[in-house]
## 1
Amino acid sequence: MQKVTIKIAAILVATSLLYACGGTQEETIEEDVIVEEVVEVENQIDYVLPSPLQIAELFKNAGLTYIGDLTNPISNVDNYNSKYDQKLNFGIYSADMAYCIMNNQTQESINYLSTLRKVSEKLWMTDILNSMGLSERLEANVGNEDSLTYIMADLQMQMDDYLDKNGMGYTGSIIFAGAWIETMYLGVKVNENETNEKLISRLSEQAIILESLIASIKQNDDENEFSELITDLEKINAHFAEFDNESEDEFVLSAEAVKSLSEDVTALRAKTIGE
Amino acid sequence: MKKTIILSLSISILILTTAAIQVVQECDATALKKELKRELRPDYKYDSSKTSRFTYKTKVQVKEIEVPLFMGEKYRFLFNTAGLSKDIKVEIYSKRIGHKKRKLLYEIEQKENQHIYVFEPTKSRKMYINYTIPESAEVEQKGCMIFVLGYKLAVLKSLD
């Protein structure tokens, strides 16, 4: 009986060791494999979308000035009850916070941070905002735009990491869609207020991003949850129909095209924030 | 008899748990990204990242990542290969797989004792990163590749 027990024990330990040390068997196994150059190219392409902060900074460098009351009022936060609306408006508020930070509107930035915290609690992403001591860091760096943008970049990294760890990569695309819509809205509104050629050039260049954004959302839409958003974004993309990905020349929208783009972006933004 | 079985079961569980932890530790994406983040300072800011996890197969695999870049701006591509048990080929192209005008812009030559690689494109347009993962007889083996993108739009002051 004891012999049987010892045998069972030995088999258990040996099996575990074989499993755990599988890596050391490489050379022996490879000898038995017929080497054949078979290449499997994945059909699915991965997309790296830029941070909303980068786009906001690009716009700021092109002359995006600060106009109060353009951003989504924080009082709207309680209206977002579905996860879809919460994700989109997390993006909207992130873009608003970036806009305030870059224009030294520190108190507004802190208010938006509190709002983001509220939305993130609904999305179970509270850890990201709590772990960084963001409010303290924002307050400690009042007036120092460079430091504030670095803090925003840190927040972006934490968020990317959180979504990645929790297998929520698709959420990142939806949040980015919200941020992109808001940044575009701020851009077209500031341009409506005072026409700015540099800003128009940057608005036109967004064609590159929109293409990738739509493709990225489509890739994660097995259950057709985002078909309405895709249709809305494709409508915006139609304004960039003349953009040629192959061309080395700068693509700039005409004044008329900017006007109609402004109208559609404004309508989509109103729909997204629930105006 | 009971004692022997319990003892051997405990040893087995311990061995299996250690093996499982090792697999996870092979790809601690957060730590690997942090290493890359240090390579951005002082001039570049974190923009975005992509962790590509894969299981080795008996055939060569190719994964493609599209990276849109804005014209005239400066970017830094950072790769961390520490989560790989086998070398993989990393190439950056001007166009996607199958495009006639596709040009190779950069290729990482992996070196011993080096796991961080940097590429700064001279022109900024849409780019395509290709990972070519070699075949392996050990199909259970997993690995991960970390990519971080940094950007520099203006002269930034260093941050302590």
## 2
Amino acid sequence: MSIMKLTATTAAIALTTTAAFARDNVQVAGSSTVLPYASIVAEVFGENFDFPTPVIESGGSSAGLKRFCEGVGENTIDIANASRAIRPAEVEACAAAGVTDIIEVRIGYDGIVFASDINGNAFEFTPEDWYKALAAEHFIDGELVPNTLSNWNEVNPDFPDQPIQAFIPGTKHGTREVFEEKVILAGCEDGGFFQAMLDAGVDEDTAEGTCMAIRTDGRSVDIDGDYTETLARIDADNNGIGVFGLSFYENNTNKLQVATMNGVVPTTESIAAGDYPVSRPLYFYIKAAHIGVIPGLKEFAEFFVSDEIAGPDGPLAEYGLVSDPELADVQETVADEVVMGSGT
Amino acid sequence: MKTSLLKLDTRTKKRNAAEARFKAYGLTAIIIAMLALLILLTSVLGNGLSSFRQTFITLNVELVEDKLDKSGVRDLEVMSKVTTISYAPLLRDALIAELDERGIENPLSNRDLGDMISKEAAATVRNRVLANLDLVGQTITFDVLASGRIDAFFKGDVTMESAVLDSNTSPEALTIAQQLADVGVIETKFNWNFFVWPDASVQRPEAAGLGVAILGSLYMMIVVLVLALPIGVASSIYLEEFAPKNRWTDLIEVNISNLAAVPSIVYGILGLAIFINFMEFNQSSPLVGGLVLTLMTLPTIIISTRAALKSVPPSIRDAALGVGASKMQSVFHHVLPLAAPGILTGTIIGLAQALGETAPLLLIGMVAFVREYPAAYTPEAGLFGEASTALPVQVFNWTQRSDPAFVERASGAIITLLVFLLIMNAVAIYLRRRFERRW
């Protein structure tokens, strides 16, 4: 093994004429939802500071956090973007690899909207409608019956007679989790199906699982790609209704019309006010051990959450980010390098 | 009864019919293939050709001292603190002044009017001011980018009808743009910068270019060429000319053929494990990308080199050995030069394959947003150690962006990639035609 390593190192020296591989740019990876925001900040950061523009990779929240937790050192990433909070299991994995000090930064909120073809029917949804339309099985009179609803007017008599065809994010997306919890599960609870199951003696976990099981008969299609793929599917099938991020919808308002949820139109304002129910916080995680080692890391993080960038009038809000009402606290967290679990 | 030769019997007719049918099948196959190519090319060219043209606005920008250098000391360090956010209003004011001067009606709010100018423009102006501090206080003419929607309007992708529904532009803005274009303030012209500029964020599709991607691809191709060619040729010569034919060489041969068919993502996994985790090279660097692509290209080069060596007739070797040349002399003086065209062709085709590869780069961090031009060598990062992307990666990235203007950019990048591939393949064909010898 040592001979192999020696050979490898010799080859490395021969190739690069130096054995030290330092990096002077910040390296970021993670959520594809956060990617556009991060790239906007990186661009402005690069043109206004003396530091090089950070390199931003996508690949998903889980993949990003996994790479974040690979260890400390210049060949590991400095920041992981995530469209959900880091899980305890991931914190443990990080700690096991020596990444003990993690700074959690919440950059704002992202709305999840339901949109359909601009020339199609308009919809006014409630979570309950979505639960009825997409649940794998309904709990009716004490037993589970497979969902056979095929048209929206069967879900709710107010809806037009249009076949149910939904394009929802695949399971690798953080968005899917929010969709299941804030729309499907919420609808299951609002409609009293959850309570009915509990009353019938089903335990809570099973009831939740049953609520969130999505039908697999083709009425609901998982999209593993990006929102551009969802948009292409809706272009091809005008009856389709897709799940999008608010910012994606706002950049394609000439092709899509957005549906209301509980009577509220999704906008950055209605989400900030808490009226629109389907939103989720976006985060990035900083490896505290890299601050001071990688030039510009702290400056980049501070710039990211500064008022001129992440505030309500900044470029991120313009692109569709709902700015965090507690931005000042977040700025303080970054400035003081408050790590997770230090009892804030 | 003997029939005339001119009159076909049933069997001959049947055979002729079978032949005609077979020809028809072949022709249909070719037509389907050509149609597929035609559809691909029309869609790519139709979408992408417009990316080589870009809309610019000519503005006389007053570089107000109050805004850019309050202290008036003209100190670079102080003035660097003034960010692009402070430069944007200057451009907007210049546009307002231009509209006033031309007598063009302006129903737009200041914010919407400012959105007609690319966000990149502020950086353009700021860079020029910081490069020459004496410009402050003067009125300078700048040729700045128009925003993506205005650009798309002049390319026909945004229309008055679609603008009504579009939250990023309005028919009023397009009317103003049209009037400015009529007097020559707005102009759509050929855009070399598409090949020079780095990638840009989702907010400025108009400023996105292929510069970093082309550099990254170039560096990787250099690494592949420098490593794969000598290693590939040396191993083929040894296997073909010197190695004893036994079970071991058979095993190696089978393995090389197998490796040529391994899915490319496997090389990415290998690259991540060896070059990044074990040897600790930089992530996202063309060095690692090149090494991974080298591994991927080696089997192709070895197989084609061996085929080229095999095609040299044994009489050449025998003649050389017969006049007293050593085995090595016969190989290097006679066999290798004769096999060179075949080797070169194989190498170029291997390189072309590597140029178009995305999957292995996903795992080593090259599918990224990179705006800094990678240097070929820096003392810190080593040779080809700075982060970059590659051409096919840029296509992949752009197709995922939300702004519709990136569709055009992605197609433009595909055209650029296709042109590079076409050139490489044409060179390969030329070399084969020019130097190939038949016996």
